[in-house]
C-alpha cells in the first residue's frame, strides 16, 4: 500500500503528467455528460430504454455507454469512425493510391486522416437514418413532419459523432493514452457497476445462491481477466542481428534485437466480424417469418446454443487468420530488415527470411485464434449458468479484450513518463507492456481498439 501511495505522489509531482491526466478526465466527463443529452425532437419519457440492449445493438449500446438506448446526441458514438478507419486501412492494402499515401510518412498519414473523417460523415449520416427508423418510436417524436425530423436528427447525430471524434483526438494530443480507445472503454465501464448491482441482487435478495456463489463469480471474473491479459500480451520474439557499420569515429549496429510478433496480431477485429455475421440469421428471420421459425435459424439466433457457439468459434478462427494475413506483411518486414543490414541468424536474407517469418506467424496464429474463440464464448457459458446477461458480457468477448488492452496501453504511457523522470515504475518487478505493435501490410498499425 505504501508503494501505491508513493507512486501516486510521484505522478502528481510531474506537472506534464498531472496536466495530461486532468485533461483526460475532463474530456471524458464532457463525453459522459453529453451521453445523457437527448436528441432534439425526441420525448425521453416515452422512449423504451430496453430497446437496443440485446444482440448486436446491445453491443453497440455498450460501446456507446448507454447512449444508443437513450437516444442521445452521442448515440452512435465513435463506431462510425472505427468503421471508416477499417475501410481506409483495407483500401490501403487493395488500392495503390492509398498504399502510396501510407508510405509518404507524416503527410500521407494526414491525408489518410482526412479521408477517414470524410468517410465518417457519410457512414454516420447513413447510420443515423437507420437509427431513427428502428430505435425511435413514432410516439416519441415531437416533430410531426417525418422529413424534417429525419434531417434534424441525422445532422445532430453526425455532429455528435464528429464531436466525440474530436474529443478522442484531443485526449490523444493533450491527455494520456489513445483517445478513441479510452472513450470506448469508458462507455463499457459505465455499465459495469449497474451490472454488478443487478447480479448482487439476484444472488442475495432473490435467493439465487447467496454470497458464496457471488464470490465464486467474482473470482472467476478475475481469472478470465488474467487469462485475457496473457493473450493480449503474448508475443513470440524473433532474434535479429544487425551488421556493424563504421561512420566516422563511431560504430553502429553489431547488436542483437528482437521482432515481437503478437500471438493475437488481429486483436479484437475477428470477434467483431464474426459477431456481425452471427446476427445475419436473426436479420433474415425478421424479414421472412417462415424462415425465422425453422429450427436452424432459431438455434443460430440463440447465443446460448451449442450450434451458435461452435459456428461462432469457427468464424473467429477463420477471421483471425484472414485479418492477420492482410495486416502483417512478412515481405515488407524482410525488405526493411535487409535495407537496414539486419538478418535472422541461420536464415538467408530476402525470400528465405520472409518465408521464415510467415511460418512463425502461422504457427502462433492458430493457438491465438483458439484463445480468442474461448474468450469470445465465455459470456455465453456464463449466461448458461444463470449469470445476469449484462454482467456475463464482462466475462469475455469484445468488451473485456478492449478493456484489458486500453488499460495496459494507458498504464504503459504513465509508466514511461515516470521512468523518463527517474522515478520507479508502477511495479516493483518488471515493466508494464502494452499491446505490442507489429509492422502491417502498409507500414501502419490496425485501429487501436
Kindly describe this structure:
The chain has 449 residues and is mostly helical. The protein folds into 2 domains: 14-180, Preprotein translocase SecY subunit (Orthogonal Bundle), CATH 1.10.3370.10; 191-449, SecY subunit domain (Preprotein translocase SecY subunit, Orthogonal Bundle), CATH 1.10.3370. The protein is 67% helix and 5% strand. It has 20 helices and 5 strands. The protein has helices at 2-13, 15-34, 55-63, 67-70, 79-94, 96-102, 106-135, 146-174, 179-190, 192-204, 210-233, 269-278, 280-287, 289-292, 295-301, 306-327, 330-339, 351-384, 389-392, 397-420, and strands at 235-242, 245-247, 250-252, 256-262, 342-343. The strands form 2 sheets. The chain has a 3-stranded antiparallel β-sheet. Strands 2-3 form a two-stranded antiparallel sheet. A hairpin with a 2-residue loop joins β2 and β3. α9 (179-190) crosses α20 (397-420). The longest helix has 34 residues, at 351-384. Residues 437-446 have low confidence and may be disordered.
